Amino acid sequence: MRLYHGSNVDFDKIDLAKCRPNKDFGQGFCLTDIRSQAEAMAVRRCEFEEKGNPIVQEYEFDEHIIDSQEVKVKIFDGVSQEWAEFILMNRMAHGNRKHDYDIVVGPVADDGVVFQLNLYMQRLITMETLIKELTFSHLNNQYFFGTERAIQQLKRV
Question: Among residues 31, 47, 51, 93, which is most buried (max CB within 10 A)?
């Protein structure tokens, strides 16, 4: 399977220490299986950092590894309370690793999701309302690689 990473800088080696903490699935290297989504992320990163040029890196990933015992994998098939709580846990981790998965696959929390999560954290909506609101979002999956063992499964194209 092909996976894509959007950035404002090109690099040859994935350095997990340079990945930003407190993302949806924790500090790690995130990719998508939708090239246009990676392109949009690259543009967004350039605008946010106010430097660099949009770059999309392409990787080959043998998805059969997900079913093997070589790596520990967590897959969220869609929006659920477990998924929302997992994202909240990682976003509030203050840089500390909160899970032991090598790879996590699941919906990406876009700006609308982040808005709903913030409402929940401010106790303005219940978890039930949060899940109901998010269930109708058409969210694309992201692929999180959070350990060196996971990164070794990616081959740059």
Answer: 31
